[in-house]
# Entry
Amino acid sequence: MNAPKPLFLASSSPVKMQGYSRIAKLMSKNKELACVRRFASLNMQDLLYYQAELVQLEADYHELALARPSAKNPLGALYDQDWWTLSQSHMDSEHKQWKLWLQIREKLKEYNKALRTQISLGSVAPPAKYDLEIFRYWLEGPDQGNFPLRGPDQHSWSSKHSDDLIALNAPSASDALTSLFKTKFLPAFHNLALSCYNTRRKVLRQKPAAPEDESSSSPADLDAELGFGPGFASYSDRRIHLFFNLLCTLISSLLPISSIIILYSVHSVRARLGIAAAFTASFSLCLAMMTSGRRVEIFAATTAFAAVQVVFISGTS
# Structure
């Protein structure tokens, strides 16, 4: 007996993602681009509404607590002194005061939760400026995202809401030199020095493709895996940081010994002092550009470096 045929057959060609699915894939593949709005104004307004509700509930509770005990409820005077009497009183048929307190308790839970959320959102860092520019370029580019959203939320990442965006993954801490290299030098280097790579890639794509297995990936498939369209290049952030860590280590070891060698070969005291000043300024600039140290730490390290040179000058004069 033949097996029943399935009602639906899966297509062998992958379905091109659009809309929210396409943005979600891009952000999941490139975590530095994952950013959303914090809605700081709406969250603050909601917090103010909670506060207003609690203020009113507090006033109503104090009004009941200060009311004189009636003949029907002689134990009302003990409500503020004995919790058990307040919660278990059967003389007050409506339990107004205790019911109001339970209402306050639930509202306080909501208020405290909203308050903690607002504090937490306030401490989340915004996306890096360069990453946000890349995402906006992809979102608006006709060969990239091409505005995959059609509703008003397509403007959620516009410059109007730059101060309201938060990064779901905190940007990696970088010193000033590394950040300058990644955001300024590397894009310019890629556009100018590697333009021949893009030309060669286009030529290779125009050649007739040889028969391949279905499991092999074409350049277009690789672009799709990254979530970007054509025209994007990816550089390893880890390798960039490794390179600058090695460069910083090399400079930190060569700069002090270089100053000693040059000071030893110069016999004029005035020239030595000028060389010491130049090396000290270079040392402090390297600390400021290649480390994330605080100002007081940079000042202390520069002072120690200058002191070493002064001691050497005075000992060899």
